[in-house]
Amino acid sequence: MVIKESVNHVRRPKISEWRLIVNIAWLFVINSVLFGVFYFSTHPLTKNIFWPNLSTRFIVNNPTTSFLYQIQSRFASGQETYYVDLLVPFMIFILLVVILGRVWCGWLCPIGFIQNILLRIRKALGIPYKDVSPKATMVLNQMGYVLIFLIAFLSFAVGVTFLGMHNFWTKSELPFESVAPPRPIWIFLQQLVGLESWDSVIPLSSIIVAILVIVLSFKIRHFWCRICPAGALMSLLNRRALVSIQKDGSKCTKCRICLRACPMDIEEIYEEKEKDNVTHETCIHCYRCVELCPEDGCLSVTFMNKTIATSKYPRAPKQKEVVG
Amino acid sequence: MNLISKKKGEKNVQDEKLNPLSSLKASEKRYVSDKILNNLGIKKEQTLSAMKKFIEDEIKKLQSMSQRAQSMAYFDDIARYFGTRAEEVAKFKDAGGHVVGSLCMFVPNEIIAASGALPLRLGSGFHETAGPANVILGDAGLCPLVKSTLGMRMAACSPYFEMCDLLVAPTPCDAKLKLGEILQDFVPVLMLNLPRIKSGAVNRRQWAEEIGILMDKLELLTGKKIKRKDMKVSIEKYQRAYSAYRELMNIRREADVLWGRDALLVAQLSYYDDIERWTQNVHKLVAELKQMKEEGKTIISDEAPRIMLAGSPIIWPNWKIPDIIEESDALIVADELCSATRALSNPVVVDENTKRGMIDAVIERYLFPCTCPCFSPNLERDDNLLNRIRDYKVQGVIFHVLKGCHLNALDATRIKGILEEEGIPMFTIESEYVMGDYQQIKLRLEAFLEMVRAQIDII
Q1: Both A256 and A225 in a single domain?
Q2: Quick one: closest CA in B to A261, which residue?
Q3: What is the pTM of this model?
Q4: Helix (H) or strand (E) holding B126
Q5: Is the ipTM here above 0.85?
Q6: Do A129 and B352 touch (CB under 8 A)?
Q7: Which of A209, A235, A261 is the last residue of a domain?
Q8: Whole domain around residue A256: which residue ranges?
């Protein structure tokens, strides 16, 4: 995705298209069994594979889990180990997020992909999105941390037997799993393909949440990403990730295009004039702002200080031939 | 609402009281009564012939420039204010089309074009028509652009003004505010309350509502709803125009092949030319300039000072200052005038092709990236100027202030300090439309250009 310099024939970064391709490709990789392409589950090293983003272990042959699952299962397995076994997943999580930040959300997350698709369908139908006020955006972003706390606390409570919580949740049915939206979606898809029997149990609560998420994500851009607990965890390291959005404040005309384009309603990229690194905590790295910014070299995506894509003046739409 | 009959031909017999646009028009003339107009004794024919002569003189001056691009012939033709273009607009109007005039660059042409009406920008650059307005305005220090535009309507000298069904008047400054008000004596005027403090969401909402009113009025005027597809077509039309002008700017940056006066004229004619034809001709001009560049032709010697024009609008055919600069062997390489580059440099970027998405894109483009001095804060203007100075290797800035344009005069003070730090000489020149100050301006500008030359020699 290297953009060549050309003065008269300016090529714009087609980031949205790339994102869709990566989204689909990654979906094939992590859920490869779903499509019968290949396995990576038998080897002990790859058996317990997990991603920082929201994934699901309810894939028949080849479960992939999320870091959230690791937290829950380690906490729920009791205090005998003093939770030392959380250390390795935690370090892997930090490593993965420091490298890619919330690229995990925008480019590699299956739920992010579903929201991307919903957004594209809505666009194609010409339905406007629902505006979220800055205040509501802030509240929604804090929701993720509340969820994280609840998840950790409830799992912990399940593990500590004398609290009696294990009567409600067991290790096979962890707190977040009864509401996590990926679970019913993937099980349903597998049922469609015939990998899963139609009488497998899906908690009603998670079906409701999944439907709500799909409906809301249709009308509100990337709704789930705003409240996602896994995303909230990644937010803590997002600013320090090796991938970042850089801004040259002197080239900014404050035209608000980046603000309008941002599916997460981030104002910082628009407001910032001084700082170079404008990666916001909640930024899911979709780079729509970089794609649409009309000022040459104002916004750019960098990985370890290497520029990957830069904003460019838009190319004019093609003239349709007039008949008659 | 079925207030306007949608059938063809019935439009003329509709009851004027039912026409919601008539509510815009003042019931009686508040500023310019018929009595005043008669007492003024405006000699329309004389004024008209003086205006035509003025234009012809200017065009002759332009045509006498050395190494001038051939493709400019088209623009010379359109530049004749009373010529082919006026006839075309009259034909359009006779065929049942609607003409919507605007007084400032804040009026979104895309939306007017989407409604099916023809957008025309009607700021006047004629000094001949400032006279009659002087009598009723009672303020000799008022901006000549406003005086001239008002006088143009009072003397009924502009063919475009006469054909206007609706005039859209944004209110960036005091003079334009009252201009819109006074013009209500003649045409239905829609005033747009421009938010002058660009602090974000609140102003955006206010501006969006103002443009919403404009859209309602346009829909009433044309009797047709603005659809998603109309918006898309008209936005793309203007995107092509912006992009063509951008290419012209790029070629100007690479080689000295285009006179600044020509560039100003090309930009200016997008005001009232057919925008698609204008775009095609800009492409032709760019192709010719590219050829010139490849052949190594330049229009002026490399030692000529590279000048940037900034400040108040310079409206055709008031080419006094550009003429003086380029006749003194300097080249205008760039400008940041709202009558030229500023009006065309920001593209409309649509995120979502929904109707609301497109309208949002248009309204934000017309308000937020604009660096009109009427805004506060207006720090983007400094960055914008500095970037252009860097890009076009500008060696001196001439900051033009129309007499009575307080906002630009105030910005000039700030900008001068900033440019001083960068080592770029800047000269603020105040001018009127009338030719009385020609010699004085010439003397002062030549002295400044000499100073720039001396500075280049030292470096």
Answers
A1: no
A2: B351
A3: 0.89
A4: none
A5: yes
A6: yes
A7: A235
A8: 243-310
